[in-house]
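This follows on from our talk about sequence and fold. Please put the record directly below this note.
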Amino acid sequence: MIFKLILNKKSLSLLSLFIFFIIFTPHTYALNTNIRPNGDTTTIQWTSTATTHYTEIDETVVQPTAGTTTDNVNNGGTATNVDRYTMGTISSIAQATQIVVWVYGYASKNNSVMSVDLYYDGSLQNQGTVTLRGSYSWTSATFTGLTLSQSNLDSLEISISGDSTGRTYYVATLYADVTYIAGSLSVDIVDSTGVSVSSPSISMSEKTFDFSNQNSTGTFGASSQKIRVNNTTGSPSWTLSLAAVGGSTDFWNGSTDYDYNDPSSNANDGSDSDSLGGQMSLNPSNGTITPQSGCSNTGLSLGSSSSYNEESSINSITLMSSTASTSTNCYWDLTGVSVNQSIPREQPAGSYSIRMVLTIVAN
């Protein structure tokens, strides 16, 4: 996200920082993962080649590779018999949108229809069918338009039953291909109600013209413009940083430009290629992290005080970061980051601005 610092001078300047945000979302696209039976429910009526039914159909193969046919389950020729299995799950999903149940099986009569149903939250939710041939082959039932939450998927069970009498249904392998959205990692500037601020800014202290160098200060992150990090992905580690949009060659733009990353003392111009002096510093350690209700600050840390420095290639400053112990499916608001800008002596009065960018990346 990018914002803009603006410095206005009555005799010198009033600095305001405007930000336009770049939001990094590593997992907003659809992902696919296979899950397999991992337990028998109390509804187990088929015949199995082992004591536990699910272990006979949970081979880690996918179509078109053949499943193992020496272990299987069959309905014993009774259409009313039902087997239902608990399934593995996928952690930290935002939503499951499609499930394709693949069955490697056959029936004693060619083209026999078999029911494949989805149970979750303790009840039947979706009904489907597959058609088994007279010899082992893969077939599938597709369930689209789903909106399964994490808890829905965690409770998923798959039921199978033969639809016709006078024939036996055999299943050697079964798995579900789940299409899901894993969530997103984002940063935004929000107001006190959590609504995104369309044109965020930081107001810096006003300065009057002076024959000596001086400093203007401000605070990044206020109650009306909070820096909000939201992570609904399965990856708990991330880093939030702030940089100038134009990189190391950027500067405060106004009636007479000045620098934001020159390390020379007294806001003088240093040995760099430009002829501008001035330096911006941030102190994130002064900030406050407020977690979403029900979440915590475990694993979070604030960045240390640092200055942009073109000579040392310090073009980005870390504001906040997380570790593997940090929660997901939470947001955090950062406020109170100190901003300081040194201003060269005899800087003409006027309005000055610089655009900055907030970037969050998964580690």
